[in-house]
């Protein structure tokens, strides 16, 4: 059979766009369908606008710190929310155009609308049908809000980037990195902020030392952290949201943001009708080569719910396109040692095993840890601290985990991730001459270990 396309991609996010461009580069005839916005979550309501908001939220501290460096006229003045919001939106619109240009430049056909599978090789969109030899589902994820009375009075991270007015008091519900980041953003921009999480400590899955350190730092910045508390209901009194908790306490806020996880965006695509297997949460089930149980249908990115990170989706797209359209030996993606950052304030950067994971995997480990005040605050007097932690397997001296909380942690950990991928040992860290004076040099000067 002659198909309209060699590859039809549903979803023009980071993973879908990279897979389509790589496939087109290998000579495939490719089409991409997008129903919401070019660039997906990361560009529109994720990584990019969030990082811009993080930058904006830190200026109040920067301006205050400037006084210690002789800038007597520096003043935070009054924060103007519409300026940040609208400048961010203009940048996102520019990036939407960049993504459109990338697809056009690669000779990819773009269909703007909601694509639905009719069978294993046929896609329907806006009254038209198209056929493809291979179909890739790359539709990402969507914020999840549990069912409870008053659910209609909350917003998600998608909405937070377009608020008509900035709140005076905000409550963030959740314990993942999105909740922690937005708590820092709201607080930094001037809102009285409370973070509520049902568990005993947020950032589950991160190193315990990091979690406790970040909790202390956020409290020092005036963020109220309420653990082991669950919202029972939310009611509206005028413009105020009234939250009632399981311990019978209440609180009021202008805004309640629920950051309680993201679910695979797989509903309404026709996947069940063509026999594609899904998990209970809607994740598309795939093998190591991203193939579903329907041989010519594939999936990558957040919709498969393995590692919900933009660079991972991009890497998965590159592996898939090479497997489909080159003669190279099929390969899978190595999910070990994926570096990541949380843009709370101060930032988290991490790669490799946590201390708990390392103790489960190895009979013995060595842990090197350092805490200090950044040099910048020698003059400002600010009490913000930095944490650095190395985890080593003494059997072969390899560094198996690196964790940092501090300014530009993501930038520093990215370089260290390369060293870990190359199998660096603690001895090689020790032999590396540090750059002075920097925070990063601490990673090559730590000598005292604990077991």
Describe the structure.
With 451 residues, the chain is an alpha/beta fold. The chain has 3 domains: 5-143 and 263-325, FAD/NAD(P)-binding domain, CATH 3.50.50.60; 151-260, FAD/NAD(P)-binding domain; 340-450, 2-Layer Sandwich (Enolase-like, domain 1). It has helices spanning 14-25, 40-45, 47-66, 81-105, 157-160, 177-188, 208-220, 310-325, 355-361, 377-380, 409-421, 426-431, and strands at 5-10, 30-34, 109-112, 116-119, 122-125, 128-137, 141-143, 169-173, 192-197, 224-227, 231-237, 240-245, 250-253, 255-258, 262-264, 297-299, 340-342, 348-352, 366-372, 386-393, 398-405, 449-450. Strands 1, 2, 3, 4, 5, 6 and 16 form a 7-stranded mixed sheet that branches. Helix 1 (14-25) packs parallel to helix 8, helix 3 packs across helix 4 and helix 3 crosses helix 6. The longest helix is centred in the first third of the chain and has 25 residues, at 81-105. The protein is globular, with a radius of gyration of 24 Å.
Mean pLDDT across the residues is 97
End-to-end Cα distance, whole Å, is 63 Å
**CATH architecture name of the largest domain:** 3-Layer(bba) Sandwich
Choose one word for the global shape.
globular
Q: Low-confidence runs (pLDDT<50, min 5 residues)? A: none
The CATH C-level class name of the largest domain: Alpha Beta
* CATH fold-level name of the largest domain: FAD/NAD(P)-binding domain
Largest sheet: 7 strands, mixed
The CATH superfamily of the largest domain bears the name: FAD/NAD(P)-binding domain
Q: How many helices does DSSP assign?
A: 12
Number of strands: 22
Q: Structural class of the secondary structure composition?
A: alpha/beta
